[in-house]
Amino acid sequence: MLGTVAGGGIGAVDVGSDGATGEPVELTLDALPDYVRAQEASHAPRWVWSDSAHWLPGLLTSGVTVARCHDLRLCHGILARSAYTGDRAPLVTAEEWRRAVEEPVVASPTATLFDLEIEHADRATVPADLPAALAEFARQRAALDSSGADGRRLRILLAAESAGALIAAEMRSAGLPWSAEEHDRLLSEALGPRPASGMKPAGMVALAERIEGALGVRGLSIDSAPKLLQALRGAGIDVQSTSQWELIEHEHPAIAPLLQYKKLARLLAANGWSWIDEWVRNDRYRPVYVPGGVVTGRWASSGGGALQIPRRLRPAIRADAGWTFVSADVAQLEPRVLAAMSGDRAMAIAGQGKDLYAGIVESGAVPSRQDAKIAVLGAMYGSTSGDAGRLVPRLRRIYPHAMRLVDDAAATGERGGIVSTWLGRSSPAPDPEWFDLQARAQANAATAADESRARRASRDHGRFTRNFIVQGTAAEWALAWMADLRLRLARFPETSGDRAPASGSAFERRAHLAFFLHDEVIIHAPLDQAEAAATAIRDATAAAGRLLFGDAPVEFALDVVIGRTATKE
DNA sequence: CCGCCCGGCGCG
DNA sequence: AAAGCGCGCCGGGCGG
What we know:
Blueprint: E1 2-4, E2 10-12, E3 25-27, H1 32-43, E4 46-49, H2 52-61, E5 68-71, H3 72-79, H4 89-92, H5 99-102, H6 109-112, H7 118-121, H8 130-145, H9 150-174, E6 176-177, H10 180-191, H11 202-215, H12 225-234, H13 244-247, H14 255-271, H15 273-279, E7 280-281, E8 284-285, E9 288-290, E10 300-302, E11 323-330, H16 333-342, H17 345-350, H18 356-362, H19 369-381, H20 386-398, H21 400-414, H22 432-442, H23 448-490, E12 512-516, E13 520-526, H24 530-549, E14 558-563
Parallel strand pairs: 4-5
Antiparallel strand pairs: 1-2, 2-3, 6-8, 7-8, 9-10, 11-13, 11-14, 12-13
The chain binds a DNA duplex through helix 12, helix 13, helix 14, strand 10 and helix 19.
Protein name: DNA-directed DNA polymerase
InterPro entries: DNA-dir_DNA_pol_A_palm_dom, DNA/RNA_pol_sf, DNA_polymerase_A
GO molecular function, one term: exonuclease activity
């Protein structure tokens, strides 16, 4: 247990596995890293602290890593909302911890970008002092004890969520190896050489001229959607918006250069040269990962768009000399998770082997792989029209258990109810306006418009809860996967080879996690540890499946690639 | 001038 | 004009 004490020092208390607390120790901030290092060496406790994002960056900067923690902020967020929690009342009424449920922490990227001092991570989030931490930990233990058999799943979820907080901080500390040179080369190839600041790259200027010529307009502001729309319509192109999926339907000489222009404009704005200047230092990109930042339990990110790096820039992810990447992604994670949680044997069998969609085609449900994909995504997202609307009912016949689970989740959501993931992360209730809308539609004075608005809101929320249980369970599977993998990698020997100067912590001197994207990890590994890291990923995949779903016959198929650039496919 | 919303598009 | 979930970020445009 770690917390601040009056006067600005640090207080620490040993917490036994039975929850018994020992004598408090008082430390100065400077003495903290050595204290934590010593505790790790002697008995590797599970550190209980207010907020990993508060405590860990400074420790990592000092070269200290911790094996396990219990993150009170993240765990409060789960327990205070979970339908699995027996008695939530004491947590819900703990006012000072409410932010943990209401708003995920988004660190200020500018404040913490290259300076991982503890002071900078000290944002107003949840209480960081020792008495508050002790009180909250006691509430959380009591909440778990009141949860009966569901407590087992919640405990797994809390451990996985807390491990995710460690991984997020460690990955930020390590950074993603990134070649600014390769990035610049890719940009120049697409856009032309870097222009003076404020100027458009030559590639975009040339396309703009072609677009103006084709539309018969001079001085068009292509970047202004209203002006562009007006110009398109003026040229006889009957569109309602300027989005690419609508433009692509029309035949006109302006369309091709316009679509190309939009691609380049996006690349320049989101990941152009100023992105490199802002986010890449010493061959490292250091995004802020936000564990639990999405209601479903997925991570969010803040700063540089870490979870939206375009595929075409993947070649800029470049391992250090003497190192390589081991990249792995899970094929069709979400449908596999759905098969497991619903106990749908037929769907599980379709997923035996690499490609679940091919298995669905073999089952005879649909004629082609593309149809299988549309049908499965449609089932999980709640599509009712188009190809998906036609294909989903076939799935309902062949995989009744899987479909029943998501259909029930949707029905619950349409009524304003709450659904939960496999391990017990629960969906937020609709806001009061939603219930107002439903009540108004039920009233005697309700108009047809009231009823249709209410029905639409109801369906919208049903699609949200339908997807919530699958996306959320996939997210906790991924957390369990990474948590297991992280501890396997931590047992690798430290490499004796040369290392880039950016390295600070011990975990960076062996194979370590460098990137995570929902169903995909990238490990940065010394060349001689790459094969072992690949094995660790495969072992972690099996372990995560067992931890969540026991002996259910579901396979989680992996694509593993070893190489110095982290390209996919 | 600032904050906010929104269209649009990148990722899963 | 998206059908069909979850995000973050950008620039334009608007209201204050």
